[in-house]
Design goal:
This protein is of the alpha+beta class and 314 residues long. It folds into 2 domains: 179 residues, no CATH class; 113 residues, no CATH class. The chain is built from 8 helices and 17 strands. The strands form 5 sheets. Strands 2-11-10-6-7 form a 5-stranded antiparallel β-sheet. The longest helix is centred in the N-terminal third of the chain and has 23 residues. The chain is elongated and about 105 Å long. About 6% of the residues have low confidence.
Length: 314
């Protein structure tokens, strides 16, 4: 660990935001742990001072004894409060992609490598989680942070704290990890039918398949065989489609940025996101197109994530 300069040691940001973001595990020591009296601790100190004053005025040895006993408890508590965090090792875990407006979950791994039980630990991001650690044990905590816009969402400062043993002092350590989650666009609330776009064959120059092979979907037209209707998509309110096979005229579902309705780029991306979700749920093979990016038609979780990731980072 690189030593801090005198200027860096007294920067206020260290006390609230923490040091530079890191990918490495962080061990809590005197450099990273801070301690201040709580409201209860300040009242305790004032009471002790008043007892000392009364003992001095009335020359009462019993009051002196009580005042010194309380003062010793006050100062010994500082050491025990510090030890409630000292030696803990924190490291970042995993994070999952979410849609804008949802809470992103960040996993924090906590290791207690010593033979000391840790009581009344609290770990905070936007909300606070409480936990206790047995000697030589590990724990995993997921902290949530509300997202607003698509793209990468960083975790920010994670603060672990404790008021053990008597609540007279609060010890805390702010830590920043290089931890981020991918945020997809918020899906549009409008369940519009899929757009009619040129076939994948005209875009990709693919050869036509055999006459009995499933080729894609097209909008249902009067006269199409009822046997070829894609009932799963119709049941989900996505419109009426006919299945096409290799011997039919080539057509495929293409989700194209240029064909997405919206007054601005974000609304178009939101509608594309809705179409990707609906196509995946309906079991439809779909191609995907953004300016400068074309993803061949596909289906399944990998194809789904690839399309959503492209929307998030567009």
């Amino acid at each position: 660990m690189k030593p801090l300069t005198l200027k860096e040691r007294f920067q206020l940001s260290r006390f609230f935001i923490g040091e530079k973001a890191t990918d490495e595990p962080v061990k809590l020591n005197h450099r990273r742990i801070f301690i201040l009296p709580t409201h209860r601790g300040l009242n305790f100190a004032i009471l002790t001072a008043l007892l000392l004053l009364i003992a001095f005025v009335y020359n009462n040895n019993l009051v002196y004894l009580l005042a010194f006993l309380l003062a010793s408890i006050f100062f010994i508590t500082i050491l025990h409060s510090y030890k409630s965090l000292a030696g803990l090792i924190l490291q970042k875990g995993r994070s999952k992609a979410v849609f804008a407006g949802e809470a992103a979950g960040f996993e924090i791994l906590i290791n207690n490598p010593v033979d000391v039980e840790r009581y009344n630990l609290q770990i905070t991001l936007e909300q606070t989680e409480s936990l206790a650690l047995k000697p030589q044990s590990k724990a995993s905590v997921i902290l949530y942070s509300l997202t607003k816009t698509r793209g990468w969402h960083t975790a920010g400062t994670v603060t672990i704290s404790s008021a053990y043993p008597f609540g007279l002092f609060r010890v805390w350590s702010p830590i920043r990890f290089s931890l981020k989650a991918l945020v997809y666009p918020k899906p549009s609330s409008l369940e519009l039918p899929f757009p009619e776009t040129p076939s994948a064959q005209s875009r990709q120059g693919e050869s036509r398949k055999g006459a009995d092979d499933f080729y894609g979907l097209k909008m249902y037209l009067p006269g199409d065989s009822i046997k070829h209707i894609h009932w799963k998509a119709f049941a989900k309110g996505l419109g009426l489609f006919s299945k096409q096979y290799g011997g039919d005229s080539p057509a495929e579902i293409w989700l194209d940025y240029d064909n997405a309705p919206g007054r601005n780029a974000e609304e178009r991306l939101s509608q594309l996101c809705r179409w990707v979700i609906d196509a995946e749920r309906a079991g439809i093979q779909y191609g995907f197109s953004l300016p400068g990016l074309i993803i061949s038609p596909g289906f399944g979780i990998l194809h789904y994530r690839k399309c959503l990731e492209a929307l998030a980072l567009f």
